[in-house]
């Protein structure tokens, strides 16, 4: 008796769906291992990549940004095809402040001594999730080990791991003397707010409404290219 092959259905024929389909279809023995289908609700494939005609020129109306240019194959293709509108980045054109100011609701400017440890904690946690080298010290290593132990195996999300890291951090610093709070903000609420600020930024990178919907193990499969975070491109632009 021939066993029935599992069927994989990919919802959406945007770049993510097509890339996943290509990865599965080109894997060894894929035709014998499973059936593969791609379902698209729209009238075309490509998702946000959408080209159209305007005044006799072919323009790109969808994917017009390159996120990270150092080592990016998309940026290389755009250079080789002269598709860049400008060699200058369009976002953060004036650079990023070397010493950013963080202000809590009520107009309270936060001391870097409170903000920087939380920012470093978030970066270390994300680096750990993504399999990158971390800016580690004894304290950071202790937090990461605690997270790994408390989360355990199973269906772990990026969001839950990050929150475990914050809980472990707050559990340690609560025993230390120092800054207590400002205005109606306690130290813990400020720490949580700064952490949430970084979570919100991370959501913009991943286009995820909730980081708890992102698989912990799959996060290492994604690469965020360094360099300018946003670089404008206009495909097939003519003079």
Automatic annotation (TrEMBL):
Subcellular location: Cytoplasm
Keyword Repeat: no
Cofactor(s) this protein requires: FAD
Entry's Gene Ontology cellular component terms: cytoplasm
Superkingdom field: Eukaryota
Signal peptide feature range: none
Sequence ranges assigned to domain Amine oxidase in this UniProt record: 15-170
Record keywords: Cytoplasm, FAD, Flavoprotein, Oxidoreductase
GO molecular function: polyamine oxidase activity
Family as reported in the entry's similarity comment: Belongs to the flavin monoamine oxidase family.
Protein name: Polyamine oxidase 5
